[in-house]
Amino acid sequence: MKASWNGVIVAESDDTVVVEGNHYFPESALKREYFTFSNHKTTCAWKGQASYLSLLVDGEMNTDAAWFYADPKPEAEEIRGRVAFWKGVQVTA
Q1: What's the whole-number average pLDDT of the chain?
Q2: 51 Rama sector, left if φ>0, alpha if ψ -120 to 50, beta otherwise
Q3: For residues 41 and 90, what is the distance between their CA atoms, to the nearest angstrom?
Q4: Spelled out in words, what is the top-level CATH class assigned to the domain 2-92?
Q5: How far apart are CA 20 and CA 34, in angstroms?
């Protein structure tokens, strides 16, 4: 699977986990040069607290475009150490 934004591949892996229709990529699949810190956090009733990352590609920022669960609840343990995307990031085979 590949995750791309603005025509640039920001993550690529054959080892994704699909939860609620979202592909969670291993952290090692991220092309770190495109990711920046975000203070944004949300809470999911069954997965726990999500933290976010923003994308910076060719001078354009996509704020909070990726999320991860640093310490997921036991029911969501399979996504520990994994990152998912939204906000215009295309995930394709």
Answers
A1: 98
A2: beta
A3: 22
A4: mainly beta
A5: 25
